[in-house]
Amino acid sequence: MPELTRRRALTAAAALATTVAVARPAAAHDHSPGTFDEVYKGRRIQGRPTAAGGHHHGTGYAVFIDGVELHVMRNADGTWISVVSHYAPVPTPRAAARAAVDELQGAKLVPFPAN
What we know:
single chain; alpha+beta; 30% helix; 23% strand
């Protein structure tokens, strides 16, 4: 068996780091984001999986700010956008809710009419 040298140890560590780095983006594109419920900048944001359909465009996920639904959509690349921050894709529905709170700057979210 070959002797473990510093060079071989560093090569193995680099290979492991590369494997982890390649695998990690797949987690960001998970097709089933979990539930969240938190207060962000004084606003209550919530998100939960739902039955696909309706005005969720098949995302199967609902997001709320202070009890008012924030219309979110999932892009083909796995990122998320909302009706409030439509041109700024984010990696998760929670990030979409936080971006909407930032964009609202204290204003109330007005319900988005269903199609």
